[in-house]
Input
Amino acid sequence: MYVCLCHGFTDGDVRGALNGGCRSVAAVYRHLADRPQCGKCVPEVRHMVNQHCRGSGEAMCGGAAMPAAVAAQAETA
Ligand code: FES
Output
């Protein structure tokens, strides 16, 4: 499924960036497209980054510490 129509990247591309080490929305854009154009895809990319970080249990995500409730949830998952 296309996530970003301006740059033509898909959810698979975003997952690839996350699996390759990207840990923030900015890092995903740097990896795939330099920067957003219209920005309509940013909420979906942010959602995917948050999902990935929750699933991996990493304490740092999105360039800032995860909210305590999210970090605690990740530790118990
Ligand atoms: S849809 Fe991604 S920048 Fe426009």
User: Anything to note?
Assistant: Residues 2-76 form a domain with the Arc Repressor Mutant, subunit A fold (CATH 1.10.10.1100). The first helix runs from residue 11 to 19. Residues 57 and 76 are 9 Å apart (CA to CA).
